[in-house]
Amino acid sequence: MNNVINLSFPVTGTELWADHNHRLCAAICTEFPELHELKGFAINTITGIPNKQGKISLTNKSRLLLRLPVEAIAQVYQLTGKTLNVGGYAIKLGNPELQTLKPVESLKARIVTIKGYTEPEHFLGAAHRQLQYLEINANIGIPANEQGEPKRLSLMIKKKVGEVIKNYTIIGFSVIVSELSAEDSIKLQIHGLGGKRRLGCGIFCPNIIVYRGKTEYDAAAIIS
């Protein structure tokens, strides 16, 4: 039996930077510094509608999903009702829904980053080796972007080194893992791939098919 769950917080606000992961982590850990050292704690990207200008608009369906060990629920639940300043934008967190991990055949991570692997072919090789290390037997691929190329994403991070603030860029790719057994699906959701969980990287969730009109959009375009 696994001891990892999700807490899904409703988010109230107007908008956020699309690249808000580092700011979000900083806001949460400023409010509760002990969460910075919490083992197995992952902070997923807040959902919203991208405006193609570097920001997302928040809606009544916007959620902050946190993945954590069961024994840490009381610590993380303290975020309920808090207003956070995320890069100059205020968001308020509502009462979270507790979600157990569900075994599904196909999982998707918005971004996976593996240090030293910034080209699709080499990245996939490294990701596949990590699956093998976890003893997960499945298909892995990178979904295509609108131009039909592997979906590459980047995260901008500001880090204070001494008295100087430096900018860093983390490169990663969206990843879909399919044909998972029930056991392997749970295992991948618990362990993830790559690093930077508190920055929303390597966090796998069910790969949901979206319907637009009569057209079905899924992971059909995969670079693998």
How would you sum up this structure, described in words?
The protein is of the alpha+beta class and 224 residues long. It folds into two domains: 4-100, Alpha-Beta Plaits; 107-223, no CATH class. Helices cover 18% and strands 38% of the residues. It has four helices and 17 strands. It has helices at 21-31, 73-77, 120-133, 182-191, and strands at 4-12, 15-17, 42-43, 49-50, 55-57, 63-69, 83-86, 89-93, 97-100, 107-112, 139-143, 152-161, 164-178, 205-206, 210-212, 215-217, 222-223. Strands 1, 3, 6, 7, 8 and 9 form a six-stranded antiparallel β-sheet that branches. The chain is globular and about 40 Å long. Mean pLDDT is 88; it is low at 210-224.
Q: Measured on Cα atoms, how large is the radius of gyration? A: 17 Å
How many DSSP-defined strands? 17
**What composes the largest sheet?**
6 strands, antiparallel
Task: Return the average pLDDT rounded to an integer.
Answer: 88
Distance between the termini: 32 Å
Shape estimate: globular
| Topology as a string of helices (H) and strands (E) | EEHEEEEHEEEEHEEEHEEEE
Structural class: alpha+beta
Write a brief structural summary:
The protein has helices spanning 21-31, 73-77, 120-133, 182-191, and strands at residues 4-12, 15-17, 42-43, 49-50, 55-57, 63-69, 83-86, 89-93, 97-100, 107-112, 139-143, 152-161, 164-178, 205-206, 210-212, 215-217, 222-223.
Name its key features.
globular; alpha+beta; 17 strands; 224 residues; 4 helices; six-stranded antiparallel β-sheet; Alpha-Beta Plaits
